[in-house]
Design a protein that fits this description.
With about 190 residues, the protein is an alpha+beta fold. It has two domains: about 100 residues, Zinc finger, CHC2-typedomain (DNA Primase, Chain A), CATH 3.90.580; about 60 residues, no CATH class. Strands 1-2-3-4-5 form a five-stranded antiparallel β-sheet, with helices on one face. β4 and β5 form a beta hairpin. The protein is globular.
Length: about 190
């Protein structure tokens, strides 16, 4: 792993940029931003508070806080040095100790496929059979940060899993609508 100067990294990147890289959904609340903590999975929509003017954050569920590197480490559930390397690779890399083979955040080799339900009614509502959904990697996620969503994988050109996109509208259909055949399109006859 390449050396990352923590102080230089904190000069180059803001805590707001880190919240974006981590895909955190935060709402403005005075001088702070608040939202759910995907790492803890509990605490409601005010579990984590980020104060951009001070460059700090705090998770009320885990009772931890700190700077932007600590935020990335908490959300990604990794060591500070790994979080710093991830942030460094996702921004303009520092001049010291950079290597040409750093993995960007969206191609992080530690990203593992989610445990998905391919036979879930919300997936069927999209029109995919269980076999098609499994081949494409599209499924219903019942736990973690993507909980309650039908998700589709995003892959780099070389096939490396880069992340997932959640299909919120489909997954939030009322349960009684799941598995219903989509309506047939009937052409309108002209008079």
């Amino acid at each position: 792993m390449a050396y990352v100067d923590f102080n230089e990294l904190k000069q180059r990147i803001t805590i707001e940029k880190v919240t974006g890289l981590l895909c955190l959904t935060l709402k403005q609340s005075g001088q702070s931003m608040r939202g759910a903590c995907p790492a803890c999975g509990s605490g409601g929509d005010r579990a984590i508070v980020v104060t951009p003017s001070k460059g700090v954050w705090y998770c009320w569920t885990a009772h931890v806080g700190g700077d932007l590197i600590a935020l990335a480490a908490h959300i990604r559930k990794c060591e500070m040095k790994d979080a710093a390397a991830w942030l460094d690779a996702g921004t303009v890399p520092s001049k010291k100790g950079t290597s040409g083979n750093q993995v960007p955040p969206n191609g992080d080799s530690s990203l593992r496929p989610l445990d998905l339900e391919y036979d879930h009614p919300a997936v069927a509502a999209l029109g995919f059979s269980q076999e098609e959904a499994q081949q494409l990697g599209i499924g219903y996620c019942s736990r973690g940060i993507m909980k309650g969503l039908v998700v589709a994988p995003i892959r780099l050109t070389d096939g490396v899993l880069s992340g997932y996109i959640g299909l919120t509208d489909i997954a939030k259909l009322p349960p009684r609508w799941h598995g219903i055949e989509p309506p047939k399109v009937v052409p309108i006859k002209s008079a």
